[in-house]
Amino acid sequence: MAFTGKATYSAGATLPEIAEDVSDLISIVSPYETPLLDVLGDGLRAATSTHHEWLEDELLPNKDAISDDMISDPTGATQFSVANGLRFRAGDQIQAKGAKELMLVTHVAGNALTVVRGYAGTTPEAIDDGDTLNILGNAALEGGDRPEARFTHRARKSNWTQIFTAAVEVSGTDMAANQLGLADEMDYQKQERLRELLRDLENTVINGGMPTANPQGSATARRTMRGIIAHLASNVFAAGASGFPAGDGLDEEKINYVLRRIWENSSGNVDLIVVGGYQKRKINAFLSAHRGYSAKDTAYRDMVSLYESDFGVCRIVTTRWMPQDAVLLLDSSRLSVMPLTGRSFHFKPLASTGDYECGELIGEYTLELRNEAAHGLIRGLSVA
Fold first, then answer.
1. What global pTM score does this model have?
2. For 138, which of 284, 317, 365, 373 is 20 to 30 Å away at the CA?
3. How far is it, in rounded angstroms, from Cα 340 to Cα 50?
4. Final residue belonging to a domain, choices 77, 111, 138
5. pLDDT of residue 294
């Protein structure tokens, strides 16, 4: 080869003899993690219909409320009405919430109770409309006939499946040409669309809603699943509401209040606290005032991953898809995200009518949330 005298620095990347220097790596910054789905894991079984149903039951209630605004003698009234008279029987010992006085029910007529006040030597206390009554238990008569049978009715709860789809289309030229950073353009596009669908599935599981009309869907109405937040009704608390711990910032008092309320009213075992980034920092701050460091410490740690209270041990899950003003408290044993049989995410090749290859990623899923009273939600928290 003849000597040219050309120095290295006189050649540029645009000259044909200099190879391009492109890293064989494609980096993605878009968030696609699904921390809640990762914690819940795959469902134990698949749904077998677009309308997925499950059964729920409950024990006979052991509490009710006084529903009588005509009580003339709060400390001496022996007759008053309650909201649900069918919950009471003659021989029940009852007690107003927060009171020491015991009362004995001697007669039940519809919603009207006749009671003995100051039973078992207790001192009569004032009662009022709306007071909660706890039913301690019934005392049967020796040799008495069996009581009237009472039972609960199992309830059928349901949710609908939702179809998640994404199209993939790659030209024949792109299929044949060498690509930077990948071996197969079609496989790469499948991976990208699958990440998007999994991201959307978690978002829908948390925030999704079901239409009030034609939830079964049609050629013109889309079928959507009801998400976790939309399921909850019994233990939903708003920051700043009457009776809820004061303030609109998340603190330990609010978390414990909701955990206690769930524990008092259900046998649910809350083991997940699901938050967004802002509320996660608030939870981390629970310990900030109590941390100590020595002179040899070179790392500052400010993270809470597990919250242990009298009402259970809760793992903290941080997901981008949670509303920033909300906190979910969940019993993961009563949650399941399941595909319709044979409809977990998969790729379906489609017929091509030109110089390209195409197909569709398809998945059909639903959420089974059992016993919504075993879960809780706080809304309206400060985000600034």
1. 0.86
2. 373
3. 7
4. 138
5. 77
